[in-house]
Structure to design on (610 residues):
């Protein structure tokens, strides 16, 4: 059980308002990801839920109970920090056992639970070591182990993978997703990486300047971004956002079209341009094309599409794939 | 960047290192040697280095004339007392400044340090008058208080820098794991801060032990620690080098031994946080 509800929650540090007012509902068992550029307030929002920062105004409910004034210890949430925040003077065993000791559980129960968690996380051989003797990935596992043993109402992850190298990050991403599927506990995950958000989330919360820009499933956000910000933030490479004459042809101030939706041809099409940089990834090639009268447009081609710097290509955006926005940024719904 | 270390270079640096070390140690060695000489030999020119009539006479004389043990006990009480009391005040202060700083925390720290820039003699008269009016002159408790206050800025600063090194996220993790403030301090903060607290303790015992200005001015006989005891041997009757040396040797011996055994701790404490 771990439904979390925020009602008009605000946060100000002195005169600076970081979160001007957030309403949000996260259902029990949901994997919610807070995503946004750095400084958008996503970590602050997580820390408000954790109780590590005091809410300036508004109410926070955990399982329907007002938890706004509860201390972090009493909220029964577990948190995994970016720096792992392991206790350096304790062995792996004692690190994982710490929350159980704090809860006053007996020695036998602690031993059983720590060993079970260590088994799940492949840490059984390392229980006697200190955190300093572990690799980054192992430390991350210890931090997760410490979170899962106490069977919290919800897990909070604060950019847990950003200190790991790229290959390990992909593995851990998978492990956390698998963990969520087996535990079915609410998870709130903060990241600035939209790939992590897309791959892991049931629900993505896009934040910008302390405000929620849009809430929805990954594909909802991808298909129907509510505004220019979400359109530009979700999806990789970024959606092409064009203004001026190109947009006016579609009765909009701004239009957006994703690189993967643009049709490419070496003979004819709607827009004509010259290839600036071609990034070959093997399976795909990303072309940065200088389109006449429009500017730089990114398009995705298959790996076999053979062009190089200076070649002329033609791009055609399929009309049903074009996102239209008004001047203030909101999407025009068809 | 690896540098080639030749044999000759190594020998040269070893010799230079030892020379500097011995030069620094020489005054202490000379004091110890002089303490075993007779007064006549102590002032002889040219001085004899090792080949003289060794005698313990000065030590007996010093003990019988001015009761070394009483002064040593005063030194122990005053240095341990002022350091202990200082830590009691400084730990919560440094704690709050390190972990929940306000906009004025840096100013408070600077202000505390600035009190150390005032020459002590500037406040001698008011403090002397206060001591006189409160009957604190020549009492151990008076000295404990004044030395505690004198060293407090240093204790707070040292502890503050150590505590700063402890990542706040670890404390937050403990809070998330269900630790109350008491348990957070007992299980996480204190064990992590032990090296810092220990070196602060050692350094302040040494500072208080060697403190002479306040002990000389505020004590006469009853509460005089070893620093006042040494000074009593450079008396109006003349300078008795051998006895003064014996008194000095006795006074520095305990702290020298303590420093020797805790040098690893001290060096670690003083360079703590210099290199991540």
């Amino acid at each position: 059980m771990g439904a979390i509800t925020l009602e008009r929650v605000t946060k100000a540090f002195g005169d600076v308002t970081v979160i001007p007012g957030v309403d949000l509902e996260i259902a029990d068992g949901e994997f919610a990801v807070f995503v946004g550029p750095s400084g958008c307030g996503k970590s602050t929002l997580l820390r408000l839920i954790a109780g590590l920062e005091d809410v300036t105004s508004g109410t926070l409910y955990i399982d329907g109970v007002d938890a706004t004034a509860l201390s972090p210890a009493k909220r029964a949430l577990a948190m995994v920090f970016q720096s792992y925040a392991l206790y350096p003077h304790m062995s792996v065993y004692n690190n994982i056992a710490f929350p159980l000791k704090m809860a006053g559980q007996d020695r036998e129960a602690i031993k059983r639970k720590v060993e079970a968690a260590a088994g799940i996380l492949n840490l059984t051989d390392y229980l006697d070591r200190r955190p300093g003797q572990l690799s980054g990935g192992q430390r991350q596992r210890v931090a997760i182990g410490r979170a899962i043993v106490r069977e919290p109402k919800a897990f909070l992850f604060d950019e847990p993978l950003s200190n790991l190298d790229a290959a390990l990050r992909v593995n851990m991403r998978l492990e956390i997703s698998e963990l969520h599927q087996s535990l079915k506990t609410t998870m709130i995950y903060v990241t600035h990486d939209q790939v992590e958000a897309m791959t892991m989330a049931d629900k993505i919360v896009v934040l910008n300047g302390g405000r929620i820009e849009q809430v929805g499933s990954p594909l909802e956000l991808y298909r129907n971004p509510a505004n220019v910000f979400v359109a530009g933030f979700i999806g990789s490479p970024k959606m092409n956002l064009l203004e001026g004459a190109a947009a006016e042809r579609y009765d909009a101030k701004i239009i957006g079209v994703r690189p993967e939706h643009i049709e490419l041809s070496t003979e004819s099409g709607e827009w004509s341009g010259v290839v600036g940089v071609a990034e070959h990834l093997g399976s795909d090639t990303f072309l940065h094309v200088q389109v006449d009268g429009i500017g730089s447009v990114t398009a995705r081609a298959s790996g076999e599409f053979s062009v190089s710097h200076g070649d002329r290509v033609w791009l055609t955006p399929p009309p049903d794939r074009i996102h239209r926005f008004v001047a203030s940024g909101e999407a025009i719904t068809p | 960047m690896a540098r080639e270390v030749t044999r000759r270079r190594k020998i040269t640096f070893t010799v230079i290192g030892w020379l500097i070390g011995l030069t620094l140690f020489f005054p202490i060695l000379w004091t110890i040697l002089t303490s075993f000489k007779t007064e006549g030999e102590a002032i002889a020119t040219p001085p004899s280095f090792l080949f003289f009539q060794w005698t313990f006479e000065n030590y007996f004389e010093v003990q019988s004339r001015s009761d070394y043990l009483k002064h040593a006990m005063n030194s122990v009480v005053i240095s341990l007392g002022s350091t202990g009391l200082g830590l009691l005040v400084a730990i919560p202060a440094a704690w709050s400044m390190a972990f929940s700083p306000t906009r004025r925390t840096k100013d408070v720290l600077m202000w505390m340090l600035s009190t150390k820039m005032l020459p002590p003699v500037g406040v001698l008269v008011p403090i002397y008058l206060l001591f006189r009016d409160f009957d604190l002159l020549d009492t151990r408790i008076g000295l404990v208080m004044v030395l505690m206050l004198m060293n407090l800025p240093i204790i707070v600063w040292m502890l503050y820098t150590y505590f700063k090194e402890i990542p706040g996220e670890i404390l937050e993790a403990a809070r998330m794991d269900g630790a109350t403030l008491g348990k957070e301090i007992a299980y996480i903060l204190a064990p992590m801060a032990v090296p810092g607290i220990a070196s602060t303790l050692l350094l302040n015992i040494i500072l208080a032990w060697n403190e002479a200005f306040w002990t000389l001015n505020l004590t006469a006989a009853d509460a005089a620690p070893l620093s006042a005891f040494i000074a009593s041997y450079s008396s109006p009757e003349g300078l008795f080098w051998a006895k003064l040396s014996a008194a000095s040797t006795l006074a520095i011996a305990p702290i020298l031994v303590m420093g020797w055994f805790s040098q690893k701790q001290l060096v670690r404490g003083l360079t703590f946080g210099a290199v991540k």
